[in-house]
């Protein structure tokens, strides 16, 4: 369910000296906008913005960019404001001064965030999360928070910010006139091969992101065509906005509106390997709109795919293979990262499990092309595995576990949390704050089949009351079938 838009004091960001050169950011707030409506509405603004952006926007954006899957040994977020260049600490939700003075690329930007990580694909995860987090602030005003990932700003940051590790991309944020939230479905199939996706959903973006996770175990059942359609649209579907040259935009940005993933996304199921097309036949006209799949190879190629890349989850019923024309181009590989983040968060919203496999080695790349019958110029860089979560394991015929139930009742402490573990299965319940940190943990002894409950008095492990806000309660089984459920708690005082 959607939650009411949180009200926060919006203060124009003004730098002020603080002890130890550390600035504490406000906790992220939750808006009423879903992941799907933000994806359908977002677009990049390249210039002409002003710097009057609330500190709360920066806080939400940094939190979101830190919630994405990490790839490699480091993941650093640098923030350039009119005052200083900061390094963000996601554990404490604070910024420490990294370099004093104004070192922004754009003199009119409010702030600029650079992502330092090992792989361009991982930078794409963070950029996409950050841009959706800023769009979540859109309201009825014509002047809105806008942003754009910029290569020139990235080059400037690497030369002027003294980063410890190379910055892969810089996202520039400011305020400018922008259209509001869009509910028009642009992705209409020309051949009825895919049903209409929905462009608004029941779960708010921030609550969904707070519980974002990956898993590599799946139930054997296949996905419905509706689920497949929704996933494909989320990753690379067309939206109402038009980009430069009249090109139809997608749910993710693309450098110079070149849309490098066009005709390079492949769906692998039990029936065939299909190519996803978001343009009218022959699929290359960037000013057109479509939402369809076309068969590339017939039959079930999943066993061959698993042999080609043994690191893939072996029980996934569906795989989405993201390919590019040039693996040395950061424009190509970051765009694949944008789409991969979209697949993962959309899967979570649908109640599915998802798993991202990257990087793909040259040997795996060649083997995947052969296994699936792909064009030799389409080079795999990320494979997304997706399916229904595991809900039961039958070690003996008579001992199957029923589905787990989790629900929070009430908003004022004590809050009643109702759950059902199943027969003789122990569990672990954790309460997470808006930053994703565990504030309270409960270990649940094996219970007989049937409903159970506990009460949370709204305190942390230290016994101190936690602030009002949106929390996520997560239930995991610790000695039974792999299973995880989450529910939202809107705590009031």
What's a concise summary of this model?
By secondary structure, this protein is α+β, with helices and mostly antiparallel strands. The protein is 20% helix and 28% strand. The chain folds into three domains: 19-177, 3-Layer(aba) Sandwich (NADH Oxidase); 205-387, NADH Oxidase; 405-491, Immunoglobulin-like (Sandwich).
Calculate the terminal CA-CA distance, rounded to whole Å.
Answer: 21 Å
Give the mean pLDDT: 88
Percent of residues in helices comes to 10-25%
Count of DSSP H/I helices: 9
Number of domains: 3
Biggest β-sheet, characterized?
Answer: 7 strands, antiparallel
- In the CATH hierarchy, what is the class of the largest domain? Alpha Beta
| Full CATH superfamily name of the largest domain | NADH Oxidase
What would you say this structure looks like, in words?
- By secondary structure, the chain is an alpha+beta fold.
- The chain has three domains: 19-177, NADH Oxidase (3-Layer(aba) Sandwich), CATH 3.40.109.10; 205-387, 3-Layer(aba) Sandwich (NADH Oxidase), CATH 3.40.109.10; 405-491, Immunoglobulin-like, CATH 2.60.40.
- The chain is 20% helix and 28% strand.
- The chain has nine helices and 22 strands.
- The strands form five sheets. Strands 1-4-3-2-5-7-6 form a seven-stranded antiparallel β-sheet, sandwiched between helices.
- Strand 3 (84-89) and strand 4 form a beta hairpin.
- It is globular.
């Amino acid at each position: 369910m959607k939650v009411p838009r949180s009200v926060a004091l919006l203060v124009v960001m003004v730098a002020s000296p603080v002890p130890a050169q550390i600035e504490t950011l406000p906790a992220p707030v939750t808006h009423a906008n879903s992941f799907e409506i933000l994806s359908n509405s977002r677009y990049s603004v390249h210039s002409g913005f002003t710097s009057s952006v609330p500190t709360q926007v920066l806080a939400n954006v940094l939190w979101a960019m830190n919630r994405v899957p990490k790839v490699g040994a480091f993941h650093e977020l640098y923030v350039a404001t009119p005052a200083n260049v900061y390094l963000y600490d996601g554990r404490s939700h604070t910024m420490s001064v990294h370099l004093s003075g104004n070192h922004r690329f754009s003199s009119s930007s409010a702030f600029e965030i650079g992502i330092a990580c090992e792989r361009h694909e991982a930078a794409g995860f963070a950029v996409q999360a950050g841009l959706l987090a800023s769009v979540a602030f859109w309201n009825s005003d014509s002047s809105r928070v806008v942003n754009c990932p910029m290569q020139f700003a990235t080059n400037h940051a690497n030369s002027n910010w003294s980063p410890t590790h190379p910055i892969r991309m810089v996202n520039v944020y400011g305020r400018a006139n922008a259209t509001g939230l869009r509910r028009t479905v642009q992705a209409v199939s020309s051949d009825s091969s895919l049903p209409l996706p929905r462009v608004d959903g029941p779960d708010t973006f921030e609550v969904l992101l707070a519980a974002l996770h990956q898993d590599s175990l799946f139930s054997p059942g296949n996905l419905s065509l509706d689920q497949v359609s929704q996933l494909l649209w989320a990753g690379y579907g067309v939206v109402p906005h038009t980009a430069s040259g009249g090109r139809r935009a997608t749910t993710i940005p693309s450098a110079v509106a070149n849309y490098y993933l066009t005709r390079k996304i492949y769906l692998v199921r039990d029936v065939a390997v299909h190519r996803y097309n978001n343009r009218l036949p022959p699929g290359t006209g960037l000013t057109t709109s479509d939402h369809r799949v076309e068969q590339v190879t017939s039959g079930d190629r999943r066993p061959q795919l698993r042999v080609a890349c043994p690191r893939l989850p072996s029980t996934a019923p569906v795989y989405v293979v993201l390919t590019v024309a040039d693996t040395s181009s950061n424009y190509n590989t970051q765009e694949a990262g944008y789409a991969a983040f979209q697949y993962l968060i959309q899967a979570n919203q649908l109640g599915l499990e998802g798993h991202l496999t990257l990087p793909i080695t040259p040997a795996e790349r060649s083997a995947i092309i052969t296994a699936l019958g792909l064009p030799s110029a389409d080079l795999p860089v990320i494979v997304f595995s997706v399916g229904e979560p595991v809900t039961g394991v039958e070690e003996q015929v008579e001992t199957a576990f029923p589905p787990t139930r989790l629900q929070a009742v009430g908003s004022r402490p004590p809050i009643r949390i109702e759950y059902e573990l199943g027969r003789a299965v122990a569990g672990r319940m954790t309460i997470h704050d808006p930053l994703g940190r565990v504030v309270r943990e409960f270990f649940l002894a094996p219970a007989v089949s049937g409903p159970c409950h506990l009460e949370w008095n709204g305190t942390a492990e230290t016994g101190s009351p936690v602030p009002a806000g949106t929390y996520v309660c997560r239930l995991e089984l610790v000695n039974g079938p792999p299973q995880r459920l989450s529910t939202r708690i809107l705590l009031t005082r």
